[in-house]
Amino acid sequence: MTEYVGKAMPRYDGIGQVKGQTKFVDDFSLPGMLYAKALRSPVHKGVVRGIDFSAAKSTPGVVGIVTADDIPGARLFGACGDQPVLADKFVAYKGEEIALVVAVDEDTCMEAMAKIKLDIEEQEPVFDMFEAIKPGAPLVRPELKSNLWEYGPGMTTRVMYLGDVEKGLAEADHVIEGRYQTGEQDHAAIEPMVSVAYFDQSDRLAIHTHSQCLYFQLGQLASIFKLSMSRLRYMGGIVGGGFGGKNHIYADHLAGLAAIKFK
């Protein structure tokens, strides 16, 4: 133990990155590999009234389309379990995934995407947190009773005390109250959110991921695909920058669904 504690240790993947030999997910290229691009909501909030894929499907090089009807298991995922895998009736934010176009290359995907006719009835969104918690505010999602998170049935707030707050205020020389805010800090990773999925020689669904936390996401993916964890081969560990931004599922579930449908 003493040969490690208190001593600088070389990164296990440092040499490969310095030499430019590290293979990230976007570097994987398999024989006959297909590509998928997501059809995303062009509006911040709305009801999906209809989608016409006919022209996109007839585009040369297009293999097919993946929609919510192709999900074999759970249709919701995420840390709070409220994020649709693919939105089919309602969109809650601009850019939300609605369907996938699967084709022989990325250019064909984009060409087919431009031919999709998407009919969305746009609704009033809410962008301000304080406006969202007011009575009668437009709901973020139609199935919600309110925009407040429930810690338990009917419990929308949780008060936590550490020490004697009232005593501390009474003894303070000055008490300053105010509303404070800061700008958004985004995770700017060099590696994009990308996944590669296929069935291996043991008929396991293999997924190369950029995830920072494989085992946090493995259960969610197993539920979406309706597969046991032993049927999933989830490979990660090489992350092209994350900063906490790759603690959630972004593309693994979509690549997996495409691999399942077009196996």
Notes on the structure:
The protein has a single domain, classed as Alpha-Beta Complex (Aldehyde Oxidoreductase, domain 3). The protein has seven helices and eleven strands. It has helices at residues 14-18, 54-57, 106-113, 129-132, 165-171, 214-225, 252-261, and strands spanning 35-40, 46-52, 62-66, 76-77, 83-84, 90-91, 97-103, 117-122, 196-199, 205-208, 232-235. The chain has a three-stranded antiparallel β-sheet with strand order 1-7-3. It has a three-stranded antiparallel β-sheet with strand order 6-2-8.
Which range does the strand content fall in? 15-25%
CATH topology: Aldehyde Oxidoreductase, domain 3
Bulk shape? globular
Arrangement of strands in the largest sheet: 1-7-3
Question: How helical, in percent, are the residues?
Answer: 10-25%
Which H/E pattern describes the elements?
Answer: HEEHEEEEEHEHHEEHEH
Average predicted local confidence, pLDDT: 92
Please compute the radius of gyration using only Cα atoms.
23 Å
> What is the number of helices?
7
The SS-based structural class is alpha+beta
Give the N-to-C terminal Cα separation.
48 Å
Mind telling me the CATH class?
A: Alpha Beta
Low-confidence parts, pLDDT < 50 over ≥5 residues?
Answer: none
